[in-house]
Amino acid sequence: MAEATDAAGSRSSSRRRLELLGLAAAGALLLSRPDLATLAAGLGLFLWGMSLLEEAIKWLSGGTLDRWLYAATRHPGRAIGVGALATALVQSSSLITLLAMSFVSAGLVALPGAIALLFGANLGTTTGAWLIATFGLRFDLAHYAMPLLALGLLGRYRLSGPLAGIAGLLLGIGLLFLGIDFMKLGFEAWQDGLRLDGLAGDRLWHWPLFVAIGIVATVVMQSSHATLLLTLTALASGQLPYLPALAIAIGANIGTTVTAVLGALSAGVAARRLAGAHVIFNLVTAAVALVLLVPLAWLVDVLAELVGLAETAWPLKLALFHTLFNLLGIVLMLPWIPQLASLLERRFPEPARLPPSQARYLDSSALNHADTAAAAMEQECRRLDRRAYHLLCSAILLPSAEVIGHPPQRQAVAARIDPDAWPGIDARYQERIKPLLTEILEFQARLDVPLTDAQQARLDELQERSLRMVEAVRLGEVLQRSLLRHAAPASPLREAHDDLRLAIATGLNRLAEEKEAATIAAPVEEVRRHWQHELAKRLREHRLDPWLASSLMNDLHQAGRLIATLTETFCATQRADIHTHIT
Questions:
Q1: Helices marked H in 73-161 — which ranges?
Q2: How far is CA 315 from CA 57, 182, 414, 519, in A?
Q3: What sign has the CA pseudo-torsion 199, 200, 206, 212?
Q4: What is the CA 284 to chain-centroid distance, rounded?
Q5: Separation of alpha carbons 286 and 368, rounded Å
Q6: DSSP state of 248
Q7: pLDDT in tens, 117-167
Q8: What is the DSSP letter of 358?
Q9: What is the predicted pLDDT for the residue at 444?
């Protein structure tokens, strides 16, 4: 064990040394080439701005984006349109992809709807190329970046709430603008550096080479926008020929699948299916675009002439090409969405049987946004509720089938009780309830995204509900021990216990059917009042031992606490549902 620890420490130390050497080499190169340093700084600022922009949009959307996307997934055409529009607004296909994974993992949407949403996100990401080609390369963005940076920096550290989110948005846009301007300066200064004019795409191996360049660049930078920005800037400055630039754009599309794959590695089966759909769509689209590169380039020239673009407007033509081949991919793949979903469901089947302690919906992908995390917790809390109901049926020595689904009958309560047939609640609690509760609490602790007050209140309600259900199970454990001690037909407490068991079973049945809170507690309260009066009478008549009377009083009290806890849980759930509906 010590040797393994030493080996791991040695590998970690070697990796750190290599990282330091790489950092020193990169620093030396950038110091010797100011033009390259300007280009790298611009790229870094652009990526930082994208990150801040995504964070600000998450904060400001307050769950609106989630609900908007969720509503759209019911129809494939609408899902594609909304996915494209949402991606165009937030300028992050990765965010939309991860949200779609969250919906599927949480069981909120079916796989075909999420696949259509993903197709739309791919189309929406092409608007980034249009914005960069239209504004980013034509205007002095540094002039606009400085006021945005000043306002964003001051607001981010001085304001709170939604105003801080707006400040983060301004800061992100300012960094994007400054990054684009720095990259333009870097390419303009790099006139005597590396030129790619020799690879004009006139040989068969040129185009796959540039597709590979686009893939590698997107994987390294984790942003197709950054790859397209580099490509557009190099194209505008004459560093890169037109056809190779188109091939790089195809490669950038393929590279975006890495984000989806990485997000699915730690997620569940549903997220892996969606990541598979993303990979298949992008690979098919890229293959078709690469085979039809020359015809598509000709079509771009024709369309550019029709709309009045100059013959040498290469950046705008690249943006048009980017949109065209993504549209082509959607047209080709849209009719095959059901078959694609079926193929992925067969390729990534659900586990035959989940271990009792394993959460089904708490995937890491659900942590990407507060609403999807709350939805996943809601689903898992309902599973915990169902397990708690079954344990509470065992606590009152009745099969679940006699309690849940139809009103419990007196005959089932009066049946002979075999104590050996009812294992202790604690063992089953440790096996089925506690591990799931632990996963729910740990999932909530891992949630590290901005929360609105309504979202925080919803998560707190879910946690409180789970804890109350556990409290009810613990009360049922105490009650079960007394019921088992007096389970014999001749026991002086059997009659009272049967009344109490039937009352609790009736309350559980009404709770499962979501009846009014007053009707849930009513049967137990009626039994409690009746037997308090009956106890006093039997004690006066010396028909009941005081020791047994005190045991029954305690059982009545435990039953009252049990049903009160369940009623409070039910009322809190109703309040949370109403609050969620209103907000």
A1: 76-90, 93-105, 111-124, 126-131, 141-158
A2: 28, 18, 83, 69
A3: positive
A4: 26
A5: 28
A6: H
A7: 888 888 887 877 777 777 655 556 667 777 877 888 787 777 776 677 777
A8: -
A9: 84
In three-state form (DSSP H/G/I as H, E/B as E, the rest C), the secondary structure along 89-114 is HHCCHHHHHHHHHHHHHCCCCCHHHH
CB 447 within 8 A of CB 373: yes
Q: With 50 as the cut, is the pLDDT of residue 328 above it?
A: yes
DSSP H helix total and E strand total for the chain: 25, 0
Three-class SS of residue 345? helix
Judge whether 66 and 371 are in contact, CB under 8 Å.
yes
* Cβ–Cβ < 8 Å for 211, 290: yes
pLDDT tens-digit profile of 40-96?
777 677 667 767 766 676 666 555 555 666 666 667 777 788 778 777 776 666 667
pLDDT at 221: 67
Confidence of residue 190 (pLDDT cuts 50, 70, 90): low
State the pLDDT at residue 73: 66
Residues 6+ apart with CB under 8 A from 302: none
Q: Determine the Cα–Cα distance for residues 354 and 392; give it in Å rounded to an integer.
A: 22
Cβ–Cβ < 8 Å for 478, 555: no
- In Å, what is the CA distance from 206 to each residue of 234, 245, 291, 309? 17, 11, 13, 27
Residue 189: closest CA among 30, 28, 32, 34: 34
**What's the confidence (pLDDT) of residue 570?**
66
Structure tokens of 565? Answer: 């806890």
The tokens of 270 are what? 């549903």
Give, in order, the Cα–Cα distances in Å from 379 to each of 52, 262, 390, 437: 31, 24, 17, 13
Q: Is the pTM of this model over 0.85?
A: no
How far apart (Å, rounded) are the C-alpha atoms in residues 106 and 98? Answer: 12
Specify whether the CB–CB gap between 262 and 94 falls below 8 A: no
- CB distance 81 to 122 below 8 Å: no
Measured CA angle at 358 (ends 353, 364), to 5 deg: 115
| Token representation of residue 215 | 């893939």
Token pair for 484: 């088992």
User: What is the token pair recorded at 218?
Assistant: 């997107």
Is residue 503 helix, strand or coil? helix
Q: Which amino acid is at 195?
A: R
> CA 488, CA 95: separation in Å to the nearest integer?
62
